[in-house]
TrEMBL record:
Zinc is among the record's keywords: no
Coiled-coil region list: none
Organism, scientific name: Pseudonocardia abyssalis
UniProt-recorded name of the protein: Acyltransferase
Domain Acyltransferase: 60-389
MF terms (GO), sorted A to Z: acyltransferase activity
Length: 411
């Protein structure tokens, strides 16, 4: 991570790596079906209860957890936008920090929920249609709003005029929408705005999220998910062995391809959550398991901090942490204590995708000099306002079509 200090002229320099290949945060809808009956009305009953019984599909804290994870990402980015270091990132010296660990939590939770979504879908086509409805409309709306609303406002704040604003042409506001519409972020910047830095460094993770959706669909279509556990375990073991071999070989492949490095990390987290979904009837959830998971996660961070290179630091963490991350997010998500948060309006996705540009715009009005709590609070308020608009006018509207499946998805 590069320690850069943005100022009122919007020098929004986060790490060069983070500006282009930032790690994500993925946000999905609540599960439609989860294994096991709804037996927990008392949170204390979670002690030692199998996951399949502890997790109630309609009475859990998943939405609250996702909102909290998005908030952690916002705090991590707030630190970097103001020129400070993420404390975990400072310790590890690499890409293992509070923000990326929160994104890991998103992926582990996603693995659990998405496998349940596939198992409950009548067909692979219906499953894919629902996944598209949940992720694409909000993503496309964010691209359009960022390009044709937020960026022009940012230009006005910085220069007092829209003269010269790159509406069209190469590396323009228009190409920012078109080139990134397929989820893989190819254009991060719009020259002349935000000091030439990333418009939104969080969106890149959604490509890897959707890639995981496709992997589940492929395994399911081959008949490798519904009745058998070993194929999923074999895939998870293969990914873990790849991470281990990369660590032992000095990151020969991942040092040359950030795409592979990101896919290996997020894929490992997603698979850990998916495996937990399949072993749910035999996976006890409780404080003792949570304590063990915390110790494993702390060990992963400590050992990552001892690595000699940023690539090795990430690989050490990826080899050790996924199971612990999955256990902790599922333990927190299974609790019914916060089940009312987000039960009607899930703002976590919108907060995740809009927080970055809101934070960058605040720097244009002097937020670089604000106290960190004030900057984070203002970023949260602006992000939640746009998240509410996204949920009300885009996401919830799209989800009304989840029971209807267009022809190409009916197979």
């Amino acid at each position: 991570m590069i320690d850069t200090r943005p100022d009122t002229s919007v020098r929004v320099s986060l790490l060069s790596r983070e500006s282009r290949h930032l790690r994500k945060e993925t946000i999905i809808d609540a599960p439609t079906v989860t294994p096991g009956p709804a037996i927990l009305r008392d949170p204390t009953a979670l002690r030692g209860t199998p996951l399949a019984q502890a997790f109630e599909p309609r009475r859990n804290s998943v939405n609250a957890l996702r909102l909290a994870l998005a908030g952690i990402v916002l705090i991590s980015h707030s630190l970097k936008f103001q020129g400070y270091e993420d404390p975990v990132g400072h310790l590890t010296g690499g890409d293992v920090d509070m923000g990326t660990m929160a994104v890991d939590g998103f992926f582990a939770l996603s693995g659990f929920l998405i496998l349940g979504s596939w198992l409950s879908s009548p067909s692979t086509g219906r499953y894919l249609w629902r996944r598209c409805l949940r992720i694409l409309p909000g993503f496309w709306a964010c691209l359009v709003v960022s390009s044709f609303v937020l960026l022009p406002v940012a230009s006005l704040l910085e220069f007092g005029t829209l003269a010269g604003f790159p509406w069209t042409g190469e590396q323009s506001a228009l190409t920012y929408v078109v080139d990134n519409a397929a989820l893989f972020v190819r254009q991060y910047e719009v020259p002349g705005v935000f000091g030439g830095e990333a418009v939104n460094g969080s969106l890149y993770t959604l490509f890897y999220e959707f890639a995981c959706y496709l992997a589940v669909a492929a395994l399911g279509a081959l008949g490798l998910l519904r009745d058998r556990l070993w194929p999923l375990l074999a895939v998870a073991a293969a990914v873990w062995l790849l991470a281990l071999s990369e660590l032992l070989d000095g990151a020969v492949l991942t040092s040359r391809s950030s795409t592979l490095e990101i896919a290996l990390r997020f894929g490992s987290m997603f698979l850990a959550g998916a495996v937990a979904a399949r072993v749910g009837p035999r996976l006890p959830m409780g404080p003792a398991g949570g304590a063990v998971a915390v110790l494993v996660l702390v060990q992963a961070v400590v050992l990552a901090s001892m690595a000699t290179t940023p690539e090795a630091s990430t690989l050490v963490y990826v080899v050790i942490a996924p199971a612990a991350v999955a256990y902790l997010v599922l333990l927190a998500g299974a609790s019914p204590r916060l089940h009312r948060i987000g039960s009607r309006r899930d703002l976590s996705y919108g907060l995740y995708v809009y927080a970055w540009p809101v934070q960058a715009m605040l720097l244009l009005v002097g937020a670089a000099a604000w106290p960190l709590p004030l900057y984070a609070a203002a970023s949260l308020a602006g992000g939640l306002a746009l998240a509410l608009a996204s949920w009300t006018w885009v996401e919830s509207s799209a989800l009304r079509f989840k029971s209807w499946t267009p022809g190409p998805f009916r197979a």
